[in-house]
Specification:
The complex is a heterodimer of chains A (116) and B (115). Chain A has a single domain, classed as Immunoglobulins (Immunoglobulin-like). Helices cover 0% and strands 51% of the residues of chain A. Chain A is built from no helices and twelve strands. Chain A has strands at 3-5, 10-14, 19-21, 24-26, 33-39, 46-52, 60-61, 64-69, 74-79, 88-95, 104-106, 110-115. In chain A, 38% of the residues are buried. With 116 residues, chain A is an all-beta fold. In chain B, strands 2, 4, 5, 6, 9, 10 and 11 form a seven-stranded mixed β-sheet that branches. A four-stranded antiparallel β-sheet of chain B has the order 1-3-8-7, with no helix packed on it. Helix content of chain B is 0%, strand content 50%. Chain B has one domain: Immunoglobulins (Immunoglobulin-like). Chain B is globular. The N and C termini of chain B lie far apart (33 Å). The chains are: A mainly beta (116), B mainly beta (115).
Amino acid sequence: AQTVTQSQPEMSVQEAETVTLSCTYDTSESDYYLFWYKQPPSRQMILVIRQEAYKQQNATENRFSVNFQKAAKSFSLKISDSQLGDAAMYFCAYRRGREYGNKLVFGAGTILRVKS
Amino acid sequence: DTAVSQTPKYLVTQMGNDKSIKCEQNLGHDTMYWYKQDSKKFLKIMFSYNNKELIINETVPNRFSPKSPDKAHLNLHINSLELGDSAVYFCASSPYRGNENSPLHFGNGTRLTVT
């Protein structure tokens, strides 16, 4: 079964500092996609960043970047220059292929607190 | 011009009642989903439809019945509501024939409270 594990229930970071959120997953599939979603208190689900498993290059979106280690099945999210608006719940997600309905399997989430 | 809209935003009802949550997407996507987020914030898929056809049913009680009148709509009807049904329900959509890299687009959620 595909599972996604986020081992940090909660993390804190000082404003302007860098923080890394961990995610590991378990799969026997060779082709898949990984995502990080952010859920602020408004409960909207907002896409932060995505990574194709077949790409070795780590994805980057402005202050957000990932460290994708396919052999280790690890997909961590690094937030640089943290801002107060980054405070939210962050979910790591694994997307299965078309034959499985393209469904997203989510980790349990990590609450990120940003201190001013 | 919200991409994925679901109504109502909040729903408070008593045990035993029947209720529906509506979802519409204007993105032209083929696939729609219902996810449940429990009190511990864990998100789990319930159903997925592709062009009105059910493709995922994740062992959800048959009190929950999704209905897709067309590919832009996926409604969720819940019969005989129980306390344990209290949760936030998210509708989402994605292209099916497109690149699996395409993310799911989520609605803003419906908070269901069963008393």
